[in-house]
């Protein structure tokens, strides 16, 4: 584990646009303690450093937006596409669900589960002739590029993916995997 020195703490605080008073308030410390730590005149306890680092990490994660996390271009299909070609796309990319777009606008999604359920119910006979719109499910939620990471985390608790839109047109996608990748950077 890397323990930041006084210069690293000051530089990170400044980079995040925080004042010493803001860091102090959020960490439950005095502004003068932050000033002394940053100047190197006091050697803080590990618990004090941990509080400061947590404040800085929270501030940094709130600066990450959907635009920073999204993957683009979005792998998608159209509602009129055959289920066979959709299954082939899913296999090629190793994905289990795919958004359905109409001229860049989300209209639903199709998943392996929906296809399997339709097979189980006897609704699919020949996937070469059946189209996605026959088995389409409700689409993924959409968010603007400016959405913060905390909101994205909350939304991914209930959804497998989120579409990032600009002026109603899908520009990117964020999955649970993308979120985990951000944390591991």
TrEMBL record:
Q: Where does the HTH cro/C1-type domain start and stop, copy by copy?
A: 9-63
At the top level, the lineage of the source is: Archaea
Q: What GO biological process terms are annotated to this protein in UniProt?
A: methionine biosynthetic process
- InterPro entries, alphabetically? CBS_dom, CBS_dom_sf, Cro/C1-type_HTH, Diverse_CBS-Domain, Lambda_DNA-bd_dom_sf, Tscrpt-reg_CBS-contain_prd
Spell out the SMART domains in the cross-references. Answer: CBS, HTH_XRE
- Domain CBS stretches: 69-127, 136-185
Q: Which Gene3D superfamilies match?
A: CBS-domain, lambda repressor-like DNA-binding domains
Q: Tell me what this protein is called.
A: CBS domain-containing protein
Which species is this record about? Answer: Methanochimaera problematica
């Amino acid at each position: 584990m890397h323990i930041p020195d006084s210069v690293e703490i000051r530089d990170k605080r400044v980079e995040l646009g925080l004042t010493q008073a803001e860091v102090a308030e959020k960490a439950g410390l005095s502004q003068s303690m932050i000033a002394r730590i940053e100047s190197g005149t006091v050697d803080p306890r590990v618990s004090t450093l941990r509080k400061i680092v947590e404040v800085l990490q929270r501030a940094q994660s709130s600066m990450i937006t959907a635009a920073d996390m999204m993957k683009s271009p979005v792998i998608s299909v159209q509602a009129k596409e055959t289920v066979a070609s959709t299954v082939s796309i899913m296999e090629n990319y190793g994905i289990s669900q795919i958004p359905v777009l109409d001229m860049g606008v989300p209209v639903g999604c199709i998943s392996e589960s929906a296809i399997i359920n339709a097979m189980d119910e006897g609704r699919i006979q020949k996937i070469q002739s059946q189209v996605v719109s026959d088995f389409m499910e409700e689409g993924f939620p959409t968010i603007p590029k400016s959405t913060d990471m905390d909101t994205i985390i909350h939304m991914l608790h209930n959804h497998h993916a989120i579409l990032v839109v600009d002026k109603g047109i899908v520009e990117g996608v964020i999955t649970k995997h993308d979120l985990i990748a951000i944390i591991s950077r």
